């Protein structure tokens, strides 16, 4: 029984994961190692979130019973896609997963920041929520520290929970050499060479707020160090 189809002529010899990754719109995903999927410890808690969980796992691993009733084929297929996404969110926080996503980041597989003053900074996928079916995936720019909606509707409709809220920041923690200088440069509206007053006031307020936040964070850090020294 063939639960999935592909534009390729070699459907019969194609593995489910290869087929899934080859679908248009799934370019943001990396391949999750089969050993990771087979280790049920890594999948703790997912059985309660995915209908037809056992069948979905079997389909992902290409060991699904060919005599499965046709009545639940569509449900199993949808569950397998959802389950792979949830597994993917966990996998890309592991050493192997981070490395695979790093390679995609280096190739700019996730696109460039649309902000002109970021000068084509490569972006990373990020979720605004770890809860499935709540927020679609966004793209994070480490230079301006902002998020953007993917240009392609295929990408913009992907569940953000399949990448999670921590991934980009974990990547930069593990690979600190990738950290880029923050972009403080702004476009300043001008009329005949003079700054537009209303925008100047907004920028000043933003700058003052940032400075206050920095001082507060620095103060909290200093207090924490003093407490640790006392204890």
From TrEMBL:
It comes from the Eukaryota. GO terms for cellular component: cytoplasm; protein kinase CK2 complex; UTP-C complex. Residues 210-231 are annotated as: Disordered. SUPFAM superfamilies: Casein kinase II beta subunit. Signal peptide: none annotated. GO terms for biological process: negative regulation of transcription by RNA polymerase II; positive regulation of pericentric heterochromatin formation; positive regulation of silent mating-type cassette heterochromatin formation; regulation of transcription by RNA polymerase III. Residues 222-231 have a biased composition (Basic and acidic residues). GO terms for molecular function: protein kinase activity; protein serine/threonine kinase activator activity. Coiled coil: none annotated. Regulatory subunit of casein kinase II/CK2. As part of the kinase complex regulates the basal catalytic activity of the alpha subunit a constitutively active serine/threonine-protein kinase that phosphorylates a large number of substrates containing acidic residues C-terminal to the phosphorylated serine or threonine. Tetramer of two alpha and two beta subunits. Belongs to the casein kinase 2 subunit beta family. This is Casein kinase II subunit beta. It comes from Schizosaccharomyces octosporus (strain yFS286) (Fission yeast). The lineage of its organism: Eukaryota, Fungi, Dikarya, Ascomycota, Taphrinomycotina.
């Amino acid at each position: 029984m063939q639960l999935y189809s592909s534009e390729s002529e070699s459907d019969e010899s194609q593995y489910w994961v290869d087929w899934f990754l080859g679908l248009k719109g799934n370019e943001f995903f990396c391949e999750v190692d089969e050993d990771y999927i087979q280790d049920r410890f890594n999948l703790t808690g997912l059985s309660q979130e995915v209908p037809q969980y056992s069948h979905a796992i079997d389909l992902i691993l290409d060991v699904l019973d060919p005599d499965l009733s046709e009545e639940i084929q569509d449900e199993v297929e949808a569950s397998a896609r959802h389950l792979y996404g949830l597994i993917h969110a966990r996998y890309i926080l592991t050493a192997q997963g981070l490395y695979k996503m790093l390679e995609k980041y280096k190739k700019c597989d996730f696109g460039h920041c649309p902000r002109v003053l970021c000068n084509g900074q490569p972006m990373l996928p990020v979720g605004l929520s770890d809860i499935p079916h709540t927020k679609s995936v966004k793209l994070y720019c480490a230079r301006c520290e902002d998020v953007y909606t993917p240009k392609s509707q295929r990408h913009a409709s992907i569940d953000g929970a399949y990448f999670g809220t921590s991934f980009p920041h974990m990547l930069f923690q593990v690979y600190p050499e990738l950290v880029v200088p923050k972009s403080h440069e702004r476009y300043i509206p001008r009329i005949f060479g003079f700054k537009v007053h209303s925008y100047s006031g907004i920028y000043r307020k933003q700058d003052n707020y940032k400075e206050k936040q920095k001082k507060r964070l620095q103060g909290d850090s200093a207090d924490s160090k003093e407490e640790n020294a006392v204890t």
